Amino acid sequence: MKRFFSAQPLPAGETGLALVRIITGVLLVYHGMECFDGEKMKTYTGWFADRKYSSPAAWAYAGKIAELLAGIGFVLGLFTRLACVASIAAFTGIIFLLGDKGKITQGDQHPFLFILLSMVFLFRGGGPFSLDKLFLDRGA
Q: Is 4 exposed, middle or buried (0-12, 13-18, 19+ CB in 10 A)?
C-alpha cells in the first residue's frame, strides 16, 4: 500500500503506458478515418471556408490525415515522437483555428486532452512495447 501512495512507478507501469499509447492511437485512427467520408469532409472544409482560409479542403484533409498517420504511429509505436508532433500540430490547429480559440476549459477539452497525451509520449517515447524499441534502439 505504501508504494501505491509513493512517487515510484507501479510494477506494471510500462504495460499500462503501452496500453494508453495504443488506445490513444486507436482513437486517433478512428478520427483520422473521417478523411475517407466525403460528407464529413465537406463539413470540415466548410468550417475553414467560413473562416475565410485559403484552400479550405487542403486544411481539412491535412488535419485528418495527420490524425490518421499519428494514430497508426501510436498504435505501432513506430516513429512515436514524430506521430506526437503531428498529433500536437493537428489538435493545436483545431483549438486555435477552428474551435473556441483556446478555451480549453470549455469546448476544446477533447482536442486538448489529445495534446496532453501526445506530450506524454513525446517526452517518453514509444516505450519497450513499440516498434521504435525493436527497430530503432538497436545501437543505442
A: exposed
Q: Do residues 52 and 78 touch, judged by C-beta distance below 8 A?
A: no
Cα 140 to the center of its chain, rounded Å: 26
* Eight-class DSSP state of 36: G
Locus of grid cell 497525451:
117
CA dist., res. 137 & res. 120, Å (int):
19
Taking only the tens place, the pLDDT of each residue in 55-112 is 999 999 999 999 999 999 999 999 999 999 999 999 999 888 887 777 787 878 899 9
Which three cell numbers mark 9? 512507478
- Cα 73 to chain centroid distance, Å, stands at 9
Residue 13, all three cell numbers: 507501469
Contact call for residues 130 and 78 (beta carbons, < 8 A): yes
Nearest to 96 by CA among 42, 32, 43, 53: 53
Q: Do 34 and 41 meet the contact criterion of CB atoms below 8 Å apart?
A: yes
Helices (H) and strands (E) in the chain, counts: 6, 0
Gap between the Cα atoms of 46 and 117, Å rounded: 28
